[in-house]
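My main concern about presentation is that the manuscript never shows what a single data entry looks like. In essence, backbone conformation is discretised, so a fold becomes a row of integers matching the chain in length. An entry of this sort, consisting of the sequence and the corresponding backbone structure tokens, reads as follows:
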Amino acid sequence: MLDALREHLLKNPELYQDEMALFLWEKFKVHVNTSSILRALNSVSWSKKKIRRVSKARNADLRDLYVHNTSNFLSFQYVFVDESGCD
């Protein structure tokens, strides 16, 4: 159930906890309270902020827009910063 919920949240990251509970009811016919959903998501280190970031990273339209916006830059115009040696 948790895997199905995580996959559903990747597609719909804006869901509220009661909407997540409704999804679980419709898919598995199991009543789950919102605090259980929160605990289950916290147990696998998933927060709403992380869900939105992962979902946005997997959005093909946003990736295409990024490539389109950066296509005018030449290779010598990019600056890469390595922060591994900074304290």
Summary: The chain has a mean pLDDT of 84. Residues 2-72 form one domain. The helical segments are 2-11, 17-28, 34-43, 48-57, 60-70.
